[in-house]
Sequence to fold (703 residues):
Amino acid sequence: MSRPDTRPPLPACSPALLTTRRAVSVRTQVLAVLRREWAVERAGREVTVTTIPFVAAFVVLAGLAFGPAPLTLARTSGGTIWLAVLVAGVVIARSVAAAEVAEDSWDVLRALTSPGALFAGKLLATWAALVVTWAVTSVAVALLFDAPPPVTALWAGLFGTLALAAVATVFGVLVATGVRRRGLLSALLLPAGLPALLAGTQLSTPAVPAGPWAVMMAVYAAVLLTASWAVFPALLEE
Amino acid sequence: MTGGSYDPVPEPSRASSLPVLELAGVTRNYGGRPVWTPVDLHLAAATTTVVTGPNGSGKSTLLRLAAGLLRPSTGVRRCAGRALYVRGGSGPRSAQTVSDAVAAVAGLAGCRARTPAALALVGMHGWESRRVGSLSAGERVRIALAVAWATEPAVLCLDEPTAVLDERGVSDLVGVLRVMREAGCATLVATHQPERLLSGADMHLRFEARHLVAAG
Amino acid sequence: MTDLRPTRPRTPDRILGLGAAVTSTAALVLALVVAPPDAVQGQAQRLMYVHVPAAWLAYACFATVLVGSVAYLVTRDLRWDRRAQAAGELGVGMTALAIVVGSLWGRPVWGTWWVWDPRLVTTTVLLLVYAGYLSVRGLSDDRGVGARRAAALGIVGFVNVPVVHFSVVWWRTLHQPASVLSPDPAPMDSRMAAALLLAVIAFSLAGWLVLRRRVRQLAHTDEAVGEESSALPAAPDRAPLVVLSRSSP
Fold:
């Protein structure tokens, strides 16, 4: 049964040749990760039932804290939206990998998908959750604060949430795969989200010159997306 | 086996002689100390290997290293194909149904269509619409085995699957291992109850005084 | 049992220590005796001779963290991680010092402990980011895992800093011109400039010395717990265990 092997060694990380019947493209893997995220959310509504009531309560309490003077409410509307999205981002980041690590399915995800595909799939799912959160918050603020946001708010909603999704994905995985100090997530995520808060607030406030802030938000998203993508594979190693 | 083309299903004689997994001088440090002496291990396709050893001897570490989940502190791991690690009693606890949960994971490997057959293989036919969160630990092992079969790994590392299985569960596990072996998979099983598994195994490895040795 | 006490100072350390001592003494004399008090700010201005070098050293340390983090992820050599960790620790200390001293200076000069100035906000965010950088090392017991997580954060945290800074600059200019801390158009007294330059050199030399000694101490710790070498000898029989398929299972 046991004898010295004289055959040449296999190439390191060689492509699947023996028992793996199918080579799965990265695009297919990304879609499969996304589809799985959607299926898990549809079945359990974890993010929906934790985030939507949270931002609703946040907006009502912010109105009570800053109001009822209409002028003050109008001035604080943009900040309220982005503060709510940023704080909700912590809740969403916790759902990126925490449950999967707890139930060991994180190992299966790591084994079956490439790091890039896993990052992209998780990023897109997190982005979708943040966009929905932003949209719900914006509508709630527009109604309760009687402060309809300018069109430029859409740009912020798109790129600000993308940037936050990138750091939420990285920090969510980083903290979830640790064995302690899970509470660090908010301490890591909130400072990193400062540009989203500032640019998002300005872009959501009427009569503020939008040009520089729009560029800032796009640059911020590009920088965080690139850095997060670059470091993500290192977080999957144990 | 050169170039980009290869047989979709390995030829038995060739599959049984090529190593799908090779660990060369591999160790892993915990708290700064290696768990065991450097391990040199070659697993051919279509094999079942049982690993035993006392608690804390490093069985799980070996399996996680073999599956590529842990980075070796020293040595090199080479693997021709996909490797999967499954811990006994673990598995999804989401609100998904059994069928959806297995299909979602199998979909990652492009094997979604194998879900019904996988569930039938592990004796979960008829359980498709049950929620995975409500399953027992033994039933979770079956789900994990279904995922393992559906995703067609080259190397499967099963960590203590027998601990939570009843008598019938162990029999079914033996059957699944045989099917995996016939499909060309190299399986490593760590267990404290090797008796039932050894008859179908190609090798029994044991940790003795921090060395991995062939038993028997 | 490895001796964890710092070893005897090496020659570069002695040179650095001597240089730091000489420049510090000279800077102290220049800053406290030779340089005149500021015409407007009075004696409080002398805090600048600590505040500016501390901030400079902190930024240099955080740049070192970035270099160490990238180099560690590329090479997986723990020496880079130790450099990054030591720089992170010193950087956090220096950032805290710069903020506290700046605040002490701000109270008599501005009449407030804090203003929403871009540099202040950016420096405070830096403190938060790098405090997090040091904290993530405790997430896991595995040395390599901690190093990889910290390196990831060291990179993401650093690349975000310019964006944070410019966003606060623009935010500030929106509400009022950033005049309070903008560079003073009046030329600085040459004695003040000399004191400040010497203080920056003194901080740099002392910081370098601290980094070198801390890196060595971390290396001793890693050696003591065996991260650097595998202590177990190889098994006597090194023939590989080969599992082949039996013809009839």
Observations:
- Chain B touches chain C through 43 residues (CB under 8 Å).
